[in-house]
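Possible regression after last week's pipeline update?

I re-ran a chain I had predicted before the update to compare outputs. Posting the input and the new output here so someone can diff against the archived version. Not blocking, just want to make sure nothing changed silently.
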Amino acid sequence: MVQICQAEACRANGAEALLAHASARLACASGQTRADGAVTLEPVYCLGLCATGPAAMVDDQLRARVSAATVDAWAARFEKVTP
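New output (post-update):
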């Protein structure tokens, strides 16, 4: 489960573009689960890390200052998962 905050503070720091990058890189539409079941991508609203956005939660772990490079690392991790 990958959740990317879309609240105002995170959007001001690029969360909208980050969600689009995540969708492309993870091969998973926003609000959907990938066909192989390895990843679900969800936009969420406020993870409470407003001062360190954009924020995300991956498998119940909060992440601050998430970048495209961070998403790329997650993608590599999810590519190794086999259903």
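Follow-up from reviewer: compared with the archived run. The chain has a mean pLDDT of 93. Marking as no regression found.
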